[in-house]
Design goal:
The chain has 482 residues and is α/β, with parallel strands linked by helices. The chain contains 15 helices and 16 strands. The chain has helices at 25-28, 48-54, 126-132, 143-151, 166-173, 181-190, 209-219, 253-274, 283-288, 311-327, 347-361, 387-397, 423-430, 440-447, 467-470, and strands at 15-20, 36-40, 43-44, 59-66, 69-76, 85-87, 135-136, 157-160, 194-201, 229-237, 279-281, 337-343, 364-370, 402-406, 434-437, 454-455. The strands form 3 sheets. Strands 1, 2, 3, 4, 5 and 6 form a 6-stranded antiparallel beta sheet that branches. Strands 7-8-9-10-11 form a 5-stranded parallel beta sheet. A 5-stranded mixed beta sheet has the order 13-12-14-15-16, with helices on both faces. The longest helix has 22 residues, at 253-274. The relative contact order is 0.07. The model is unreliable at 466-482 (pLDDT under 50).
Length: 482
């Protein structure tokens, strides 16, 4: 095989298989967990993107390493038949591509000691952008990467632009070698790649006229029908922890209101030009200015929840449905004392709707606003809460019979918080059942015994708590619900 001239099949990384889908090509070939896929049709595979691309043929040859032995499997796949492989990791060659920027607002550079190990890894991997919607800067791509993006049509991509002026962007990223982002985006547009752009706005750095110029230039890449280009621009307020040391600051309420007003003015202009709003402020702008979040239709079909757009509206819309379901329920679960924990930004919204939930269900519902002591009180979103802060502050406030925590707080493959604490750890330490939730519908499910994310005290967790991280908080010292 030609492949043997390019790689050593005994040492090439390959993809370690951990699961086989029933009735798939892999199942018919009797591939097994523990096998390592090296190549498909003479093409070495370095990640799941390669597997998706090269396995699209009807006739397949799979080169596999099993217990040190090299095996070749041949198969014919039906047009709609899946290859059916689940891999231990989406990339086979390295864990993840590292970032070569030193952005002063980068969270990795703002982390204190003794957090989750992966939080100290600066990732900037275009493959994760395509596979999972991660935002990347395009500053660390080589020609092979560009070739893959073009020839495998890796669309859409999610790009952190921040500012379109090359010199200012280089200063912003602290990377004198960063390329011309507009040139790179034009290159992607020519290849029919769709791009979702992101501007993280820092007061006094890339706001004002720089923001206006960036949006104006990105709008020149709005795609014609069926073509590639910039299809959305998310505007995100900078997040700064108490460990930030570069002189940046968060927006004042007045600055946030001015930015939101400006973006909404642009939206009206783009509706006239493009038929959609094109530029979208994240939920945080609305919450910090006490403005009503827009309806989901205002996001024009874009799925940008993971970037903080539309999450609050989705919560409110879910509650509108669930409250009708509760109102007509034939049987009601026994009333219980329920404690809902969330971060400062979302607490006022949750309190209002939790009061309605309590009236309908007869439950005694307490909302506890958790201060982010580990990262600082300027960090007000639930996804960045720490288990040790939750534990200490719930102990101080007292908890009901059921504790409900934001699911997004444990949004990690190992279901652990930023400081390595699991929901099971918290259930054991609080001596209460703990449910994870994104919405009040999940709380309703928990009351009815239908939650799939329920942790009961007395069960040994899969891992162990890092007692250094938990620190004095466990002893009472002063140390998606969205």
């Amino acid at each position: 095989m030609a492949l043997f001239q390019e790689i050593d099949p005994l040492t090439f990384a390959g993809g370690r298989i951990v699961g086989i889908e029933p009735h798939s090509v892999a199942a018919e070939l009797d591939l097994r967990p523990g096998d390592e896929l090296l190549a498909i049709n003479d093409q070495a595979v370095e990640d799941t993107i390669d597997v998706q691309f090269y396995a699209a043929e009807e006739e397949l040859e799979l080169l596999v390493r099993r217990d040190g032995e090299i095996l070749l499997f041949e198969a014919e796949r039906d047009y709609d038949q899946a290859l059916g492989l689940e891999f231990a990791h989406p990339t086979f060659d390295v864990d993840i591509r590292r970032c070569n920027n030193l952005c002063e607002f980068c969270f990795v550079l703002q982390m204190g000691p003794q957090f989750r190990r992966t939080l100290y890894i600066k990732d900037d991997d275009y493959r994760y952008s395509f596979l999972f919607g991660h935002y990347v800067t395009l500053t660390n791509l080589n020609e092979h990467d560009w070739w893959r993006i073009e020839n495998m049509r890796l669309s859409p991509l999610y790009v952190s632009v921040h500012v379109t002026d090359t010199e200012l962007r280089r200063r912003f990223l602290r990377n004198s070698h960063a390329g011309d982002i507009m040139e790179q985006l034009r290159r992607l547009a020519e290849w029919n790649i769709e791009v979702h752009a992101q501007l993280v706005i820092v007061p006094g750095f890339n706001d004002g006229e720089w923001l206006a110029r960036s949006v104006r230039e990105l709008a020149t890449l709005w795609p014609e029908e069926g073509a590639g280009g910039v299809v959305s621009v998310s505007v995100v307020p900078v997040g700064l922890t108490k460990h930030h040391k570069y002189g940046m600051r968060p927006h004042t309420r007045a600055e946030a209101a001015a930015t939101l007003n400006y973006v909404e003015t642009l939206q009206r202009e783009f509706i006239d030009r493009f038929g959609i709003r094109f530029i979208y402020p994240t939920d945080e702008w609305y919450l910090v200015t006490d403005r009503e979040v827009p309806p989901l239709d205002n996001y024009d079909g874009h799925e940008l929840h993971e970037n903080g757009l539309g999450m609050v509206r989705a919560f409110l819309d879910d509650w509108a449905v669930i409250r009708r379901e509760i109102a007509v329920a034939r049987t009601m679960p026994a009333p219980r004392a329920v404690t809902l924990a969330t971060a400062a930004l979302f607490a006022p919204t949750l309190r209002q709707k939790a009061s309605e939930f309590a009236s309908l269900t007869g439950c005694d519902v307490q909302v506890v606003e958790i201060r982010n002591e580990r990262l600082g009180e300027t960090i007000t979103v639930a996804g960045l809460l720490n288990g040790s802060d939750v534990l200490q502050q719930l102990r101080d406030a007292g908890v009901g019979e059921l504790v409900v925590l934001p699911r997004v707080m444990f949004d990690h493959p190992d279901t652990i918080s930023l400081d390595n604490i699991s929901p099971q750890d918290l259930a054991n330490l609080l001596d209460r059942p703990v449910a994870l939730a994104d919405a009040l519908g999940d709380v309703w499910d928990a009351l009815r015994g239908e939650s799939k994310l329920m942790y009961r005290p007395g069960v040994a967790p899969a891992g162990t708590i890092d007692l250094k991280v938990l620190g004095n908080g466990a002893n009472g010292s002063a140390a998606h619900l969205s």
